[in-house]
Amino acid sequence: MRSNQTATPASYTAAQSFTGLAPGGTAPAVPATRSKAAGPLLVGATIAMGLMAGLFFAFDVSVMPGLAAGDDGTYVTAMQHINKSIDGNGLFGLVFIGAFLATGIAAWLQHKAGRRRAALWAAAATALYVVALIVTMGVNIPLNNELAAAGDASQIHDLAAVRAKFADTWVPVNMLRTALCTGGLLALTRSLVLHGRAER
After folding, report:
1. DSSP 82-145
2. How far apart are CA 63 and CA 94, in angstroms?
3. Distance of CA 77 to CAs 71, 72, 137, 149, Å?
4. pLDDT for residue 31
5. CA dist 8 to 5, 16, 24, Å?
6. Closest by Cα among 108, 179, 96, 103 to 141
7. Coil/strand/helix, residue 48
8. Cα Rg of the chain, angstroms
9. pLDDT tens by residue, 128-144
10. Could you give the CA distance from residue 97 to residue 110 in angstroms, rounded to a whole number?
């Protein structure tokens, strides 16, 4: 009695054994590459973003309202000193740039580890902080430099005009930076939660 089945060629069987494929099967998934630094870096990015959001928020609710209650000379002089102190502060520079680097790298590591949702939230935080950086470089820093170039407040003839030109733009733009960094902080917090769930 003849069999209806066709023998499988030995060469085909060997190829299947080598590739790990079953007849009609699919290629095994390539395991995602995970890094032990992904979690700690995400935590660091969240802390740095929180510090930046807190700094800008402090200006919104205390520094600028407090200075607004004083005279023009006090306002201009105080802001000149504050800006100079921040510019020369290495710790501020570390957090200011570190927040961007840590957030961007954290998003990449989450993506590399196959945590798509966590990566997307971290990427959103990176995008929000990039906008905050653009605003800072394009608006706040030029205004700070212009205020510094005005010189000693006692030598400025029209203090009210100098103050108004600075404050009318700097204050609302700083509120925007606060909102952007707060949004980045929330996005990183969500990414951190998703990372923690994936690690369980």
Report:
1. HHHHHHT-HHHHHHHHHHHHHHHHHHHHHHHTT-HHHHHHHHHHHHHHHHHHHHIIIIIHHHHH
2. 22
3. 10, 9, 22, 12
4. 45
5. 9, 11, 14
6. 96
7. helix
8. 28
9. 999 999 999 999 999 99
10. 20
pLDDT computed for residue 157 by the predictor: 94
Distance CA 134, CA 115 (A): 28
Q: N- to C-terminal Cα distance for the chain?
A: 58
Instruction: Locate 55 and state its tokens.
Output: 């700094």
Residue 37 pLDDT? 86
User: How would DSSP label each residue in 19-30?
Assistant: HTPPTT--PPPP
52-56 long-range contacts (CB < 8 A, ≥24 apart) are 52/95, 52/96, 52/99, 52/129, 52/132, 52/181, 53/178, 53/181, 53/182, 53/184, 53/185, 55/92, 56/174, 56/177, 56/178, 56/181
Alpha carbon 35 to its chain's center: 20
Q: What is the DSSP letter of 137?
A: I
Low-confidence ranges of the chain (pLDDT < 50): 1-6, 10-23, 27-31
Pair 132, 175: CB distance under 8 Å = no
Which residues neighbour 83 within 8 Å (Cβ) at sequence distance 6 or greater?
144, 147, 148
Block residue for tokens 């990176």: 126
Altogether, the residues listed in the chain come to a count of 200
How many Cα neighbours within 13 Å face the side chain of 162? 25
- The tokens describing 12, both together, are 């085909």
The residue behind tokens 């080598």 is: 18
